[in-house]
Each structure stands twice: as structure tokens, then as C-alpha cells.
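Re: the request from the purification team.
They wanted to know what the chain is likely to look like in 3D before they choose a buffer screen. I agreed to run a prediction and write the result into the notebook, where they can find it.
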Amino acid sequence: MILFLYTMRIHPQIRRGHCSSSIIYVLVQFFALTISSGMLHAQASAGEQAASESRYIVDMPTAGVLAKGRFAADGYVFGNSGVLAEFTASPLTNLQVGLSFGGSGFLGNGNIVFQALPGFHARFRAFDETLTIPALTVGFSSQGRGEYSGGRFLTHSPGIFVAASKNFSFLGSLALHGGINYSFDPILAERFPNAYIGIEKTIGSVISLVIEYNPTLDDLRSRQRGGLLNTALRVSTGRGFTVEVQVRDLFRSLPGATQPYRMARIEFIGAF
């Protein structure tokens, strides 16, 4: 992802203001430094041999948090040559914080459009999982997914959320995730509490399959057509890297959707 951003020479060529250019340049430099320094203590997050917990089902948060002293650098690629960079770190036990920033239109001859503000993330795990009780995490995220256009993301950010996760032994590992959230992305008149569920199943030592249903009660555009059914396949490729391919909106609920929406994600988890 970092090499991809560099080859497009984002820093010297962006014409939509120095602020956005500087933010992306700093993110690129910081990602390169932290990934290189964390290689010796890298951890992947897919399959039965995963050393780190998943932090998202597809879009929506799980109760997973990074271990103390760990960081995650994530890169997303989506429609209209869009790119999102996200950095998260865990300075204390059960606490993680992060920032993200992205835009679309990097390739071709159209305008590059950035999201209005960087995304902010914070979560704290209030209860660890036991044999009978799921893990419970509270948090906030202002980062939506997909293209940013017309003052909104393709899908809303979670906003304030409470997430629960429970793991079971079933032909490997099976995890159930769920939560409630309240997004601040919709206009005030359309804001409404939302709930979501998901399932995560390992397939062998390095692969996980995840399915997420988000009824999007806070988004009239997709709610009227059944909400969002998203799925993803994750593969741990070694040395802390996990590659994920997402097939989203299987119900074709988003405006103008004729086929499921595809995205890709690369995650690196390392240590300070």
C-alpha cells in the first residue's frame, strides 16, 4: 500500500490544498517507519494460528483489541481508485487508539477527492472473554467505508459502539460477533441506533471467512432494501501481514448497485 501511494507521487502532485497533501505524506512516512521497526515482532490475524484478534467483522467492530505495545497499519483499496490508510496502536492494556485518512480518484485525470476530516478511533475492552461470558468492548469510530462524496461515505461510520465477541471450538475456531452503534454521520433528523451481527470461521491454519449483516437502521438509502450483507476472506501471509478480499452489499441495497461491491485490505500488525 505504501509503495502504491509513493508511485502515484501523491505528496508533490496533489492540487487540492496543502493540508490534505501533508497529512497523506506524514501517514506514508510513519507507516514505512513503524512497519520496518515492527517486523521482528509481527503477528497475523487470520486462521487457527492467528496471534492477534480480529478488530472488525467486515465494516463493523468486534470486541477485539490489540495487545499492549502492538500497532496495526491497514490499507484499503476500493472503487473509483480509492485508498484509505489507517494506523492504530495500543499504549495500554485493553485500550487502542488510531487515526485514518483516505480519498478517491487517485488514478485517471479526474479530481482527487479526500474525506473532509481524518477518522478517529478509540476502543476499550471492559470485560475479557470467559468460558461463559463474551468479551465486551466500548468505543468510537468516525471512519466510514468506501468513497467519500456529497459530504458522506458510501457506508456510515460506526460512531459510538458497544461490541461483544465469543469464541467457540468447532472444526477449528468459530467466533460470534455483535454490537449496537450510533453513528453521527447522518443528519440529525435521520440518526437512529443500529445493531449488527457477524460470524467468523477459521479454515485451516491461515484462512478465515467472515460474514456480517448490518441492517443500516441509520441509513435510509440501504435500509429500505434490506440493509448490508457483507463477506470477506482473510489470509495470513506471514510476518504480520494479512490480506483480505471483501465482497460487500450482496443484497445490492446501495443506490445504483447492480453487482456486489468489492474492496481489498492489507493489514500489518507489529510491536513498538
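For the purification team: The CA atoms of residues 192 and 218 lie 5 Å apart.
Please add any questions underneath this entry.
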